[in-house]
Design goal:
150 residues, alpha+beta, Nuclear Transport Factor 2, Chain: A, 4-stranded antiparallel sheet, 35% helix, elongated
């Protein structure tokens, strides 16, 4: 066994140079973005889902009149064109919202019924209600078929 004595001054120089890198590594590993499912709690709550479903029931007859669905499946909910398959595939938890995607904010009367979520926004994309982290643009949850049932 070989024991090497390192002078205290030299040891402190090594620690001073490497400590910031170790701290940065620890923060990176602890980051919520280190894994797509690390933030299990950042999803729509049961209360939010209930409010969305109640709103959909109240406004179902309005949506049903203009569903615009065709047998070939080209139209999305409420008569809107469906997303291309590649973009629809990327519209999922843990991924950033694709750039240039048309998003609509929830109707004011619906948004006022939902509890405030600081740092998050709820939008509608292609008939899906999406919870987005405002700071990063990362999709945290997606609800399909709630506002515009199939």
């Amino acid at each position: 066994m070989l024991i090497v004595k390192v002078p205290r001054n030299d040891m402190m120089k090594i620690v001073d140079k490497t400590l910031p890198a170790w701290i940065a590594l620890l923060f990176a590993l602890a980051s919520p973005l280190a894994g797509a499912d690390a933030d299990v709690g950042e999803v729509f709550t049961q209360a939010e889902k209930r409010v969305l479903e109640e709103y959909a029931r109240e406004h179902h007859s309005e949506q049903g009149k203009s569903s615009g669905r065709k047998k070939n499946g080209k139209k999305g909910a409420a008569g809107r064109q469906s997303l291309p398959p590649g973009i629809a595939k990327n519209l999922q938890r843990g991924k950033p919202l694709p750039p240039g995607l048309a998003k609509n904010y929830l109707p004011e009367d619906l948004a006022s019924r939902l509890p405030e979520r600081k740092g998050y926004e709820r939008v509608i994309v292609d008939g899906r209600v999406i919870l987005i982290e405002e700071a990063t643009g990362i999709v945290r949850d997606v609800l399909e078929g709630v506002l515009f049932p199939e």
